[in-house]
Amino acid sequence: MKKYIICCVGLLFSALTFAQELEATVEKDTTQLDEVILIGQRKLSNYRQEKTLSSIDNYLEKSNRITMIKRGNYAWEPTMNNMASQRLVVTIDGMQVFGACTDKMDPITSYVDVSNLEKVSLDSGQEGTENGHCVGGGIDLQMPQSKFYGSGLKSSVDLGYETNGNYKSAGLDLEYVGNKFYINADGIFRKSDNYDAGDNNEILYSQFQKYNLSLQSGYKLSDNHVLDANIIYDKATDVGYPALPMDVSLAEAFITSLTHTYKNDSTRIKSWESKLYFNTITHIMDDSKRPDVPIRMDMPGWSDTYGFYTKATLKESKHSLLVNLNGFYNRSLAEMTMYPNDSNQPAMFMYTWPDIRTLYTGIYVKDGFALTENKTVSVSARFGYHNNTIAEEVGLESLQIFYPGLEDTKSRFLMSLSADYTIKKDEYDAAFGIGYGERAPSVSEGYGFFLFNSFDNFDYIGNPNLKNEKALEANLAANYYVNKFKIGFETSYFYLTDYIIGEVDTSLSAMTIGANGVKIYNALSHASIFDFYVNSTYEISDAFSINGTVGYNYGKGSNDEYLPFIKPFSYLAEINYSRNLFNAALQLHGNGNQTNYSSFYGENETASFAILNLNFGNMFYLKQNKLVLKYGIENLLDTKYSTYSDWNNIPRQGRNFYMNVSFVIN
Amino acid sequence: MKLKYILPILFIALLSTACSSDDDNNIDTPPTVNEVEGLIKIQDIENNNHTIELYSKSGYFNTGYNEISLRIKENTNNTFFEDFTINWMPMMQMPTMQHSCPNSAITKAPGRDTVYQGFVIYQMTNTDGSGWSLTFNYTIDGVDYSITDTISVMQNENQNVTSFMGSDSERYILALIEPKDPRIAINNMKVGLFKMETMMSFPVVEDYTITLDPRMPGMGNHSSPNNTDLTYSSVNSNYQGNLSLTMTGYWVLNLKLMDDMDTVLKGEDVTEEEQQSSLYLELEF
Q1: What is the pLDDT of residues B96-117, one digit of tens each?
Q2: What's the burial of A379, exposed, middle or buried (CB within 10 Å: 0-12/13-18/19+)?
């Protein structure tokens, strides 16, 4: 059991199997965690997952606070605390990356794969502002730390197959670790046909195909100085979005960074990390595979980001301080060309994101103060300058149709403050936090031009005059431990002012054929979001354990309407059996009836559902090498269902048999 | 290290070469302003003494509003006159009758010595472009001259001019003047409105109102926001308003003409059933 966990809590896709070395890396992580307190942090250790080749989306979905909005079988959009990407700050190892799709079909999480990452840190609310301003929280997809163990060459191979959708995946990882130099190269390929919902209903346009390549390398300049370089190339083609009227023919990302790290245990400055980065994304929506559309169109989008951060951790008596200075410059451009059915008419063109340049610089400071050995108070603050410029003259003029006299540039100051108190005892632990944060409107909210939202069937127009959205938040979490029983709860409450949401403007005429009308992004004077989770675990014996979670969420605006995409009552129960070389689990997962649905914002009531999953894992040692086998059945009863976060109620996967094989060669 | 020395030398070299070459050109020859810069010749009309050169931005006549520049050349020495008076009479020869079309007086182009300008609105043409002729009557140094020649007027692809009978039983001609280069923006729209008093007389109609509702029939016949009705500008003798175009493509500008008592003379509101007004102009970009 212990050995198994040690083996599992490791570097993702790593070929490292020497237990001692693994422990060493784990230690490194935890020392860092002392300084950056993470809530709900989850390691992406793939050998511990039900599937070694799970997508990042699948990993994220396992967190209580995270729900994935699904528009298809690929590129799910994470929401945290019932807030979607515009209210979160999603970063890759501290790097800002912005999707290039106006319809949120390419969340950042879709441009990296499990093979690129070591762990994901999820920080709820204002605790997530280390890398940027947010109201809902922060998701940082962290890449592996550099390592210089001199362990030599390793490799591993992963293969996966799933019956539902004829889903094939394969991964290869090669790594050389010397004493002063290391290099890691990996690639992963995934391809799926249309999947079947319950009762063998094929979901058309749910196919996808992608590959991801990454190269990470580091050089130890001296005992304290390390230089790392990282390149990720991700390319998805032929991605269907069954919930949307369009598919994606290309989603391509090139993400690169250069990092310098200074570490010294004997000085006041414990670490100092500086990164320069650049990423570019191309996203091409098209509808050429759809036989029946009112009008043919192309919607390409581009997003380029240049940025840096430099962050230092300091320790002085009982204080541990983190300072992070960062900045980025983003260019977001998207356009739409429509081809009239009457071929005599010329193509219709517009900028949907009129070349918006966003410049941000800000500073984050966090101080953790240990009152006693088991009581800690920490405070953090972020201040930033945020500027948007409309670089495209045509784009400025087109927005001036709606906002005569609009200037091409707008600056904002953003602020975020938080404080929390944690207490850790043997039999219980508790944390209480409060926070205040602001965020600037996203490019779509500020400058989008006729963005069609198929969920409520409205065209959306951005509003450059929006105020910053502000959130006051309080959160409380506690866990009690009684023998082998653990029960805990976590809850948070957000009071948002100037809550940005689309508002119908009846005087405007919809552009999209068949749309209900036009919404302008506007702000509700306030809105409240509340969530509450109870988690419990009981270890029946060394091998058997059961755990369960129930959750309740609530969201309402000042107009007395429920907010959209608020999770209904949810529950998860699991029985685990685990031995050193074998494990099995039976999982029950379900939602209650979505009674507080928001018809005002285009939602309909989603019925309750419950599904059963069964999974097994075996591990074999073949001399020095290791074989990990994961297999199971998802949606055992072939239930036909959809959840509240399924765009336009597309049904989810029916019964699925899967098997993943990982072979680690030392 | 080497770069440190090479760079300044490079800079100096670049700067000095950049400075030297400009000086020699414009000292002796006075700047000759090209009077017809940016214009393309449509055609020459000649008599024994003079040649009238006709220019426009496009280089040809088409139906609708034509902004025309012209100058008169002395055939003997190829010089252009700077001072003359001139008027024109466009004429359409039909099988049984002939008629003219709305046109302006011809005045000297601002900032030009030899170029004069005016506009003509051809409301129709034959399919092969034939039928129209232009007669110029002009006076130079107290001597009157006249030239007539046939011209070719091409049918504009879109409806940028329309002639119609109003509910007051008068015939009107309405032509799009601007935008010439439509943009995805709020465009300044200008329209000329003329009453056909006789076959030869087309006075400007003043103080009526033209409502505007642009639509895209290729895209669900959607409209655009913040358009304004066209009102009469006495300074420019035409009708002006705001035209919002939210994207490129084919637009139908649905219009409704109302007189000074707000009586509708022509055109209807666009509705679900009635996708287009009977009074409209077209635009494509």
Answers
A1: 889 999 999 999 999 888 999 9
A2: middle
Closest alpha carbon to A98 in A407, A425, A388: A388
The number of angstroms, rounded, from the C-alpha of B109 to the middle of its chain's C-alpha atoms is: 14
Per DSSP, the residues of B91-107 read EEE-SS-EE---B---E
Measured CA to CA, the distance from residue A636 to residue B55 in angstroms comes to: 80
Residue A197 bridge partners (DSSP): A201, A653
For the domain A153-665, what is the CATH code? 2.40.170.20
pLDDT value at position B4? Answer: 53
pLDDT number for residue A193: 96
Mean pLDDT score of chain B, rounded to an integer? 87
Is the CB of residue A84 less than 8 Å from the CB of residue A248? no
Pairing of strands A137-142, A625-634: unpaired
Q: What does the DSSP assignment read for B108-136?
A: EPTT-SS-EEEEEEE----TTS-SEEEEE
Residues of chain A with pLDDT under 50: 1-45
With CB atoms and an 8 Å threshold, state whether A349 touches B248.
yes
Among residues A71, A163, A247, the alpha carbon closest in space to that of A642 is found at A71
Within 10 angstroms of residue A153's Cβ, the number of other Cβ atoms is: 12
Residue B179 touches chain A, beta carbons under 8 Å: no
Q: Which of B222, B245, B284 sits opposite A509 (nearest CB)?
A: B222
At residue B112, the pLDDT reads: 87
What is the tens place of the pLDDT at every residue in B128-179?
Answer: 888 899 999 999 998 999 999 999 999 999 999 999 999 999 999 999 999 9
- Are B167 and B279 in the same domain? yes
Specify whether B140 is located in the same domain as B207: no
At B5 the pLDDT is: 56
For residue A285, CA distances in Å to A248, A298, B238 come to 4, 6, 45
3-state secondary structure of A45: coil
Q: Which residue do the tokens 């002063």 mark?
A: A180
User: What is the DSSP annotation of A330-359?
Assistant: EEEEEEEEEE-SSTTSPPEEEEEEEEEEEE
Which of A336, A349, A507 faces B225 most closely, judged by CB atoms? A507
Residue B32 domain flag = no
- Beta carbons within 8 Å of B210's beta carbon, 6+ residues apart: B174, B191, B193, B229, B230, B239, B241, B255, B256, B257, B258
Name the residue facing B244 among A351, A401, A511 (closest C-beta). A401
Indicate the pTM of the whole model. 0.86
Q: What are the two backbone dihedrals, phi and then psi, of residue B15, each rounded to the nearest 5 degrees?
A: -65, -45
Bridge partners, residue B73, by sequence: B51, B80
Asked if A514 reaches chain B (Cβ–Cβ under 8 Å), the answer is: yes
Hey, are the CB atoms on B220 and A513 less than 8 Å from each other? yes
User: So what's the pLDDT on residue A15?
Assistant: 32
Q: Of B72, B79, B80, nearest to B47 (Cα)? A: B72
Q: Look at B218 and A397 and tell me if their CB atoms are within 8 Å.
A: no
Selected residues 544-563 of chain A with any CB under 8 Å from a CB in chain B: none
Using a CB–CB cutoff of 8 Å, tell me whether B276 touches chain A.
no
Which one of B131, B154, B177 terminates a domain?
B154
Residue B250 amino acid letter: Y
Tally of domains in chain B: 2
Same domain, B52 and B143: yes
Q: Complex ipTM above 0.85?
A: no
Query: Does the CB of B226 have a partner CB in chain A at under 8 Å?
Result: yes
- The domain in which residue B100 lies consists of 40-154
Give pLDDT tens digits for A164-217: 999 999 999 999 999 999 999 999 999 999 999 999 999 999 999 999 999 999
Cβ separation of B250 and A397 shorter than 8 Å?
Answer: no
List of chain B residues whose C-beta atoms are within 8 Å of the C-beta of residue A345? 218, 249-250, 284
Sign of the alpha-carbon dihedral angle for A70, A76, A79, A80: positive
